[in-house]
Design a protein that fits this description.
Blueprint: E1 2-9, E2 12-17, E3 20-26, H1 31-40, E4 45-50, H2 51-56, H3 62-69, E5 74-78, H4 84-92, E6 97-100, H5 102-106, H6 108-118, E7 123-131, E8 137-141, E9 146-147, H7 152-161, E10 166-171, H8 183-192, E11 197-201, H9 207-216, E12 220-223, H10 225-229, H11 234-243
Parallel strand pairs: 1-4, 1-12, 4-5, 5-6, 6-7, 7-10, 10-11, 11-12
Antiparallel strand pairs: 1-2, 2-3, 7-8, 8-9
EC number: 5.3.1.16
Family: Belongs to the HisA/HisF family.
Subcellular location: Cytoplasm
């Protein structure tokens, strides 16, 4: 499944390089019109990142998210989710699956409680990682502005026991760089945790990357810049979506 991504900052469609807010590209698109274009092309899901919410530590684009959800697609969205109430507000706005990152890394028991309260299909773990000099993958937190020392394997094993089903993973070094996705990372994750539904994010350039990701065994991938720049055309997106 190919999921179009829309990143929002001050209500505008943007893309960042490696999560760096000082390296922002702003696109001349209305977010709702863009989402409708993706829906018309066959998108069943749209992935929306509330960058303002990620920085503020609370959802900040609820009205706009509700308008996008009203188009009829399933909406996966996150950014700044820190509390049970934040999850409820996003679900009430029409979000089908809430993406949770920093709080899950910092307070795993809280996220485990949310899995029990809301159900595994209403939540997605955002596991955004950087490889350290020692070779370990470390999760990033606070809109990718800081790294955690949490052990990725321990987190995933614990959340799997708590019922986790959906994981969105980004190799931050590949995000927005036009170098392609980290295929080795996704092969490793799928091999170790085959029960999870992995969604690859970051680095998708064109249809060849989508085909390569499909071969790793991931359940889906997020495409943002490629669709905005046209290196993955809407016609190709539609064909890939039908093939999936």
């Amino acid at each position: 499944m190919i999921i179009p991504a829309i990143d929002l900052r001050d209500g505008r469609v943007v893309r960042l390089r490696q999560g760096d807010f000082t390296q922002t590209r702003t696109f001349d698109h209305d977010a709702v019109v863009l989402a409708q274009r993706y829906a018309t092309a066959g998108a069943k899901w749209t992935h929306v990142v509330d960058l303002d919410g990620a920085r503020a530590g609370r959802p900040a684009q609820l009205e706009l998210l509700a308008r996008i959800a009203g188009l009829g697609m399933q909406l996966q969205a996150g950014g700044g989710v820190r509390s049970h109430t934040d999850v409820e507000r996003l679900l009430d706005a029409g979000v089908a699956r809430v993406v949770v990152g920093s709080i899950a890394v910092r307070a795993p028991s809280v996220f485990a409680d949310w899995l029990a309260a809301f159900g595994a299909d209403r939540l997605c773990l955002a596991l955004d990682v950087r490889r350290g000099n020692d070779g370990r993958w470390r999760p990033a937190v606070d809109a990718w502005q800081a790294d955690s020392d949490a052990d990725v394997g321990e987190l995933l094993d614990g959340f799997r026991s708590a019922g986790l089903r959906h994981v969105l993973t980004t190799d931050i070094a590949q995000d927005g760089m036009g170098a392609g996705p980290n295929l080795d990372l996704y092969r490793e994750l799928v091999a170790r945790w085959p029960q999870l539904e992995w969604i690859a994010s970051g680095g998708v350039r064109d249809r060849r990357d989508i085909d390569a990701l499909r071969a790793t065994g991931v359940a889906g991938c997020v495409a943002g810049t490629a669709l905005l720049d046209g290196t993955l055309t809407l016609e190709e997106f539609a064909t890939c979506s039908r093939a999936a």
